[in-house]
Amino acid sequence: MFDYKLLEALAAVVEQGGFERAAQVLGLSQSAISQRIKLLESRVGAPVLLRLSPPLATPAGQRLLNHAQQVRLLERDLGQDLPMVGDEQGPTRLRIALNADSLATWWAPAVADFCVREQMLVDLVTDDQEVVLRRMRAGDVAGCVCATAEPVAGARSVPLGSMRYLAVASAAVLGREHQGLRDPAAVLRILPAVVFGPDDQLQHRFLSEIGHKGDFQHHLCPSSEGFVRMLCAGMGWGMVPALQIQPQLRSGELCEVLPGRHVDVPLFWHYWRHGGRLLEALTRCLIIQAPLLLADGHIA
């Protein structure tokens, strides 16, 4: 049988990004956490952690983390059904990965009422929409929002709608660069782009669709808010969710470089198949709320 105190230690180290913070969360010494991880590895017969900064779960560790998270959620259900066999329940913390643009736009309005009603606390991990599924595969999270439809083993995937991205730049910069240019697309070859991070391929995709191949100059800005600020300041052009920049579009502070051209990115919610009633209820909430909120970004 599993010793769930050992699994708890493993989950804390991965979720908190290190042994010291895991020890603080669990109210133990760092040495005690280290001993529990070593004992778990001895019983499993394989390493469960890569001692990096931050520590990463090995394939064996990932399977144990997946199991531990699902047990945590199922114990919540059991405690509700049989309160006499469980401890007094407080808020349930759910670790979720999602792309930064969803966090900056529709996510909070979609889940706010649900979190209050279900006493759910969220521990959010953000990354580019193309790569957050790695968090599920690594056993780091119980659910994620990403652009990939195919779920990992043991999980389900449901479509939420699509996020519309517009190629925009500041009105002042566009007015300056458009002078003497017959082809508006040529502006994109002159201005540097703003790219969220190494995994962000939206700008590449948009340029490819208008016939531009190869490399291009770009800034890197791993912040949704900072991304928009850089565009408003005239530092380049970039692909931004229409939901995020409605005020700037209405005021004329930002303008579409090629009006009518956009990129729609489908979004999917992934969650563990045996994650208990809370995860199922959150899924139903997202299926209803996300498409309504995402549709606001498709208004012409």
UniProtKB/TrEMBL annotation:
<dbReference type="Pfam" id="PF00126">
    <property type="entry name" value="HTH_1"/>
</dbReference>
<dbReference type="InterPro" id="IPR050176">
    <property type="entry name" value="LTTR"/>
</dbReference>
<dbReference type="InterPro" id="IPR036390">
    <property type="entry name" value="WH_DNA-bd_sf"/>
</dbReference>
<dbReference type="InterPro" id="IPR017685">
    <property type="entry name" value="ArgP"/>
</dbReference>
<feature type="domain" description="HTH lysR-type">
    <location>
        <begin position="2"/>
        <end position="58"/>
    </location>
</feature>
<dbReference type="InterPro" id="IPR005119">
    <property type="entry name" value="LysR_subst-bd"/>
</dbReference>
<dbReference type="InterPro" id="IPR000847">
    <property type="entry name" value="LysR_HTH_N"/>
</dbReference>
<dbReference type="InterPro" id="IPR036388">
    <property type="entry name" value="WH-like_DNA-bd_sf"/>
</dbReference>
<dbReference type="Pfam" id="PF03466">
    <property type="entry name" value="LysR_substrate"/>
</dbReference>
<comment type="similarity">
    <text>Belongs to the LysR transcriptional regulatory family.</text>
</comment>
<protein>
    <submittedName>
        <fullName>HTH-type transcriptional regulator ArgP</fullName>
    </submittedName>
</protein>
<keyword id="KW-0238">DNA-binding</keyword>
<keyword id="KW-0804">Transcription</keyword>
<keyword id="KW-0805">Transcription regulation</keyword>
